Amino acid sequence: MNSDHFVDGITMEYFANANLGGEPYAVTQTDFVYFDPANQPPNPMVPPAPMSIRWSGDCVCPATGRYLFAVTSDDGSRL
After folding, report:
1. What is the pTM of this model?
2. How do residues 38-68 score in pLDDT, each as one tens digit?
3. CA–CA distance, 74 with 4 (Å, rounded to integer)
């Protein structure tokens, strides 16, 4: 899927804790989800650990059928 399938893009909210708690430190918009921090925070306003990120947006699939959404992480995730 490409950015054309996400209505209004994807909102990324960065939190300076491991549980998405409180107000986000930073909020940005993107066209796709790819995150590989390599031990670096994605935004200088957010400390490297602990941290959590919430991606949200509406995906419009181009056709009826089966789709696979997957996530890989080492500290926990929800999809």
Report:
1. 0.74
2. 666 666 766 677 888 898 988 888 889 998 8
3. 29
